[in-house]
Amino acid sequence: MAYKQRILSGMRASNPRLHLGNYEGALRNWVKLQDDFKLYCMVADYHALTTMGDIPDNIGAYSREVAKDYISAGIDPRQSSVFIQSHVPEHAELHLIFSMVTGVGKLERVPTYKEKKEDLAEGRAVSYGLLGYPVLQSADILLYRPHGVPVGKDQAPHLELSREIARSFNSAFDCDVFPEFKDIIDEDDLRSKVPGLDADDNGVLRKMSKSYDNCIYLTDTEDEVARKVKGAFTTPSKIKKSDPGIPEGCAVCQYLKLYSADWKTLWDEDVQGERGCMQNKSVLIDVLNEFLRPFRERRASLDDSTIESMLKQGAEEARQCASETLSLAKKAMRLT
Question: Are residues 206 and 182 in the same domain?
Answer without folding.
Answer: no
